Amino acid sequence: MIKKLYLPLMALLVIALSSCSKMGALSSDFFTTNPEVLEAVGGKVPVTINGRFPEKYMKKNATVQVTPVLRWKGGEAKGQPATFQGEKVEGNGQPISYKMGGNYTMKASFDYVPEMANSELYLDFVINKGSKSYTIPSVKIADGVIATSELPTVNSANASHADDAYQRIIKQAEQANIMFLIQQANLRNSELNSEDIKNFHKKVAELNSDTKNYKIDNIEVSAYASPDGGVSLNTDLAKSREANTEKYMAKQLKKNKIDANLDATYTAQDWEGFKELVSKSNLQDKDLILRVLSMYSDPQQRETEIKNISSVYKSLADDILPQLRRARLTANYEIIGRSDDEINEAFNNDPKVLSVEELLYAATLTSDNTRQESIFNTTTQLFPNDYRAYNNLGELAYAAGNIDKAQSYFQKAASLNANAPEVNSNLGLVELAKNNVSAAESYLGKATGANAAAESLGNLYIKQGDYQKAVSTFGNIASNSAAQAQILAKDYNKAKNTLESIKNKDAMTDYLMAIVGARTNNASLVKSSIQSAIQKDASLAAKAALDREFAKYQSEIK
């Protein structure tokens, strides 16, 4: 009898103990992450966690809250928790079968901070069963964080330069017209003694006498006939006007001892001049006349059709056609500016004699940053309303690593010209260096046309985590930032070629090359590049020791 009662009692006891027992610890084997090693992307550390509750684990009347936690020395960051529930629980959690177990996926994203470079991802568990709540041991599921995207390559990016507009040789032209009566080619004294012609000869004489600052290229005679009267008549007329005017000019040049090439041409029917004068006039039916010119190319047909517009032809004959009976004199010449040596000498002795364009150009004649800074400072004193010198002082400060000073100069430049593409590109670059991505994007939207806009935009796309777009934007630019984008886009051969092409390699160039070595399993490249980087910047030794990129290469970087 006792034996018969014993077995049922034992069964009830097992059931009772089973219902009261706690859920045990979970093995890390039940979890995977993507990526396997966490990586910063666009200022965030995203991760997808795939987990599994094993068979006969999830109690039917229990809930489990799972919280991803990224821990590092002295701190932690928590992700969004997820709740899972047994089959008898009424709630909003994902149900998990006791008998079969169940799989689940959860996502987490953490705001990146530099301390995360040496961190670990855990899952924390809180179990609720009835009125009782308890925890089970946290499970480490991943290492973190690869932070190659956060390397401050933007600090060595090139700021946009505000160019000068200096031209040593400026081509100019002086013009005058000799007018003719209808169907005549003789040069009238009233025309030859006009103020227009007198001023022309005076200007040519001045150009010829000042060979230091001017050079006459040639004198052109362009003779014309108006388009009325037929092609044959106008051809002879235009030729005669050309010949008479050329003879006159040759005599004047010889008289004034001016040695200049004299070139002469004629136009029998000046339809282009006619079209221009009509389009600028207030003539009635001018649109109809212009339509005739566009419809017909034959000169005779054009003339006939226009004469048929009787309402306007008298105005054409009185106001337009007389202006086309002319010989145009053109003196083509060059204004010769100061030479490079003369500009340098003027800056050294008396910079006040230089124009703003000459001063800005002077800065391009030296690679000495101290002299460039002196030139730009002088320019701001002499031309305080020109933004370009302030912008270029900011460029020098940025290259020297003084971001705050650079920002101050760029802001001053913006106060003078808020729409200048170079200024907006540079202010965007400063904001990127300070991790103010939204502000940077706003500035860079107004940077089109700046000479280093592509480099600024490429850095923006790195910060936003759009690595392929960054690579495309950088194009063939050889810079640390371009190589960084290529590494993040996993184009390691291109990154290596870019780094090798950089002219002024710095410690960051070598550090990035070491990352290329690590990602391509090239231990010797890791070792040589890290050693070179540390020689240039000793602080990189500590950084490399913690960098997850080099987890497998600690012996090489010591």
Provide a descriptive summary of the structure in words.
- The chain is α+β, with helices and mostly antiparallel strands.
- The chain contains 23 helices and 14 strands.
- The chain has helices spanning 2-20, 189-192, 195-209, 231-255, 271-280, 286-295, 299-307, 310-320, 340-349, 356-362, 369-382, 387-399, 403-416, 421-433, 437-444, 453-463, 467-474, 480-488, 492-501, 507-519, 523-536, 540-546, 554-557; strands at 31-34, 37-39, 44-53, 62-72, 75-78, 82-85, 94-95, 102-111, 119-129, 132-146, 169-179, 214-224, 262-267, 326-336.
- The strands form three sheets. Strands 2, 4, 5, 6, 7, 9 and 10 form a seven-stranded mixed sheet that branches. Strands 11-14-12-13 form a four-stranded mixed sheet.
- Strand 4 (62-72) and strand 5 form a beta hairpin.
- Helix 12 (387-399) runs parallel beside helix 14 (421-433), helix 17 packs antiparallel against helix 18 and helix 20 runs antiparallel to helix 21 (523-536).
- The longest helix is centred in the middle third of the chain and has 25 residues, at 231-255.
- Residues 1-19 have low confidence and may be disordered.
Summarize the structure.
The chain is of the alpha+beta class. The longest helix has 25 residues. It is elongated.
List the helices and strands and how they pair.
Blueprint: H1 2-20, E1 31-34, E2 37-39, E3 44-53, E4 62-72, E5 75-78, E6 82-85, E7 94-95, E8 102-111, E9 119-129, E10 132-146, E11 169-179, H2 189-192, H3 195-209, E12 214-224, H4 231-255, E13 262-267, H5 271-280, H6 286-295, H7 299-307, H8 310-320, E14 326-336, H9 340-349, H10 356-362, H11 369-382, H12 387-399, H13 403-416, H14 421-433, H15 437-444, H16 453-463, H17 467-474, H18 480-488, H19 492-501, H20 507-519, H21 523-536, H22 540-546, H23 554-557
Parallel strand pairs: 2-10, 6-7, 12-13
Antiparallel strand pairs: 1-3, 3-8, 4-5, 4-6, 4-9, 9-10, 11-14, 12-14
